[in-house]
Structures are given as C-alpha cells and as structure tokens.
C-alpha cells in the first residue's frame, strides 16, 4: 500500500474517533454544564418585572459598556435567617436519613451477598423493584399510613394502646421515614456490589488466625466495603439535601428544607435570581460530596 | 451455611425486615385501591369503582399518553448517547476531555433535581432569546431534559457491561481487517444488547417518574402523569390514585418477572454452551 493511503486511512480513523467522542461531550456540555453557568449568571442579576423576570448583566449604551454584578441576592440569603435555617435543616435531615439507610442497608446487603447463588438475583430484583415503581406514589403511600386517621393510628386506637391519634404526619419524623423508604434501594445496591466481590478466603484466613467475628468484620469486611459505603451514602445524601417532593408531602411547619424553599422562590414568588443564588449555594455545599462520589465512581468505571 | 439454616443470623433477619419495610406500604396501597369508601383509610367493603373512575378521568389518561411518548423517545435517545459515552470511556484510552466527560456522566446521578430543573429552564429561556427556539416549552424541552439525565444512567449500566465482556473477540475482528465501525455494530453491540435493554428500561422508568425536572422545563401545554398525580396528591389521599398506583406496581412487577425469566434463560443457555464446549 502507498504510504499516503495509509496516512489517509489513519486520518479518517482519527476524524471518526473525534466525532464519536464529540457527540456525548457536546450534548452534555450544552445541556448539563452550560446551564450551571447560566444559573451563576442569573444569580448575579437583579429581579425585574419582565419576561423573563430578571435584569441584564451587560448593557451597551452611549458608547459605554456597563456590567452589572449584583451580589445582593447572596447577601439577602445571608441576612434572612430562614435560608440559613433551611440549608442547615436539609443537611441535618439528609444526614440522619443517610445514617438510618446505612444501618438498615448494610446488614441487608451483607445477607444478600452471603445468600446462595440462585437467590442473589431474586433478592437483588426484590430490593430494586420498588425503586422502579413511581417515586411520587411511594411517598404518597406514607401519607395514608402516617396521617391522623391513617393506618398506624387506626390500628393503635383499635387495640386501645392510645386514646388520641399520634401526630406523625407533617413532622420531621415523617420526612426522615420518607427519605429512608425512597432511597434505601440506592444504598443497598452499591453495598451489595462491593460485598459480593469480597474474597471469602480473606475472611477464612482471619478466622483461621483466631480473629473473632466482630474483629474480622471491623478489620477486614468494613474497610474492604468502604467504596460501597461511600457510594451508597452519597447516592442517598446528595439528592436528599435537595429533596422537594418528600418535605412537601410529608413535612410540616417544622421541616425547613432548601429544595422546598427554592421551589417556592421560583414558582410562587417568581424570584428567579434568588432561586438561582439558592441553587448556587446548594451546589457549593454539595461540591465536596459530589467530587468524592465521582472519585469512587470513576475508579469503578475505569477499573 | 448449615448454621444459617438452624438459626437465622442477624443479617438475615434484617434482610427480611428490610424487605417487609419496602413492600408493606405498597401492599397497603394496593389493598385500599379496592376499598368502597372514599375515605382511603376506612375499610367499607370490596369495590372496583375507583378503577372505573380512573379510566374515565380524561386528564389522567391524556397525561399518561404524554408521559409514555416522552419516556419512549427520551429512553431511545438516551440509549444512543449513553452507549457512545460508555464506549468512549471504556475503549478509547486517554483523550482530551475524558475527565470532563466522566464527570458529566456521574454528576447527574446524584445532582439534586431542583438544581438540574432550574438550570435547564434558564438554558431554554436563554436559547429562546438568542435563537428563537424553543418558542414554547413543552414535550420537546422535557424530552431534552430527560434524555440528558437518563443518558448518564445508561452510560453507567452499559460501561459496566463493556468492561465485563471479553475484548479478544473485538480484537480478533479488527486483526482480521474489520473496520472499527463494523466491529462495533456486528461484534460489540450484539454482545452488550442485554445491557442496552436494561439501560433503555431504566431510562424509560426514570423519565416516566420524573416530577421536579419536568415541572421546571414544561410549559402550560404539556402535563406529564407525575405532574397531574402531584397536584391531586397535594390535596390529600384519593382512592383513584391508589388504583393508579396498583396498576403501576402491577406493570413494573410483570416487566421485572419477564426480565428475570429472560436472564435465567440466558444464564442456562450459557451454562449449556459451556458444558458442550468442555465435553467437545
């Protein structure tokens, strides 16, 4: 073959390769990365009664270029204790829910990984199946269970254990139950994936060397499943911080969560700049957990 | 293992309790969908009237149709994009933009929906100002939003499969002079097709299920099923929603059963082939 034809072939391959890389890269840059820049931009603009409801950042008039960077929205978030309380409330709630998920999910995943081979797929499908049905409807199910005239109160009243219904709906407790219920499968899945890969001979070696069960668990099993613990916890914690549906349906006046506040700023107050500033600060708070999650996930993707 | 059978261990008990926790609320939903009373929590005898009312509710029916259409097209596009992204990440070694791509594939998995929804809405508003499209927000903008976050899930599912499969077949084809494109369509794609099906189904359910992102990027014209359900559920419990929930649970369970059946058959076939190969 002539060298020029080989060069042409290689060049064509390179071109094809670039086109294949460009397709997902461009789509995600346009529809995932670029929108964040716009959120930053709008968060620095002033609210206006217009369509869309915000003022311009750059204006050119009388041969002068005016750039407006309005930090007022951020200062406003700091000055109003409602927002600080909402951020704190979200992080607290998400943290407690993640911890509960881990405490329930870890033993579940452990039992699944130790189950006989033909059972493992069935158990995995059983754990995942609820997450494929509607999220909204699974949260809704708890409204019928926890409300004052709900299932739990009816049963307890019927048995004569209580005289008046317990108030469970529209509380912090209901929100945490809702998050644990909705996100538990996402905790179990990565834990199970890590625990099945655990080399049994390591556990046998530990017990041959006289290690007690608890000791083996703490020194061998736990460190080896750390990747699963981090991935599972981040899959619960990060979305839970921004959760809107669960505090809206199950929460009450005492549950202040940032996802709900952002929703109300946007849809009820129509204050897009403040909603954008709220989103930017939330993103900033979640940056470290997201980067942490990504590091473990990309190790998984590339190994 | 023998000890397990005599006395269930702590983890087995937790697994059973955990599964009960996951399934009891759904059982309650299903049971009360057959309740004759309008009060969801008071039992007043067996009835299927709420199913009848559900099927007469034009708003819900048209929302179901809208949601199914969006989910079908979003899942299909997400499978294309996600598969290409997974292929690039697992087969292309290092290239410029790889870190960016892998970040943009994993970040949507955890990104709070209110942030994704708001940011995409601002993009669509800006685009409408700059290039005049999209003039109206509705099915097209929901489709783009769903395709974007679903393709991340597809990419993760497909990448897992791509790393698992034996690369020697692909390499053999290339050594025999098959161009990369042909190798991809005739060797790689058939081998990863179960992962493509799983990715498509996952994307389809994720799109059907999304409330928050769709609420941000939708216009007055398009109402998806979760949007209609949400506005009804906000008012309190309603037996019609229980009937809808029962049908959704039924559909998902049947699909899962079918998938399980095919996975088992595929596994049995592989084992039979292995035995044949060993005896030959």
Automatic annotation (TrEMBL), chain A:
Span of domain ABC transmembrane type-1: 87-293
Transmembrane spans? 85-109, 121-141, 173-195, 216-241, 272-293
One GO biological-process annotation of the entry reads: transmembrane transport
Give a Gene Ontology cellular component term annotated to this protein.
plasma membrane
One Pfam family here? BPD_transp_1
Topology versus the membrane, per the UniProt entry?
Multi-pass membrane protein
| SUPFAM superfamilies reported for this sequence | MetI-like (SSF161098)
Name the PROSITE patterns on file.
ABC_TM1
Q: Which UniProt keywords apply?
A: Cell membrane, Membrane, Transmembrane, Transmembrane helix, Transport
Compartments, as annotated in UniProt: Cell membrane
Q: Which domain of life is it from?
A: Bacteria
**Matching InterPro entries, A to Z?**
MetI-like, MetI-like_sf
Q: Tell me yes or no: is Phosphoprotein among this UniProt entry's keywords.
A: no
Name the family.
Belongs to the binding-protein-dependent transport system permease family. CysTW subfamily.
Q: What is this protein called?
A: ABC transporter permease subunit
What is the organism field in this record? Answer: Vreelandella alkaliphila
**Organism classification:** Bacteria, Pseudomonadati, Pseudomonadota, Gammaproteobacteria, Oceanospirillales
UniProtKB/TrEMBL annotation, chain B:
An example GO BP is: transmembrane transport
Query: Quick check: keyword Ribonucleoprotein in the entry?
Result: no
Question: Where are the bilayer-spanning segments?
Answer: 12-34, 70-88, 109-128, 140-162, 183-203, 241-263
Topologically, how does it sit relative to the membrane? Answer: Multi-pass membrane protein
Q: Specify the protein name.
A: ABC transporter permease subunit
Q: Which residues form the ABC transmembrane type-1 domain?
A: 64-259
GO CC, alphabetical: plasma membrane
Q: Where in the cell is it found?
A: Cell membrane
Q: Which family does it belong to?
A: Belongs to the binding-protein-dependent transport system permease family. CysTW subfamily.
| UniProt keywords, alphabetically | Cell membrane, Membrane, Transmembrane, Transmembrane helix, Transport
Stored SUPFAM superfamilies: MetI-like
Sorted alphabetically, which CDD domains does this protein's record hold? TM_PBP2
Entry-linked PROSITE patterns: ABC_TM1
Q: Which InterPro entries match?
A: Bact_Polyamine_Transport, MetI-like, MetI-like_sf
Q: Which organism is it from?
A: Vreelandella alkaliphila
Top-rank taxon? Bacteria
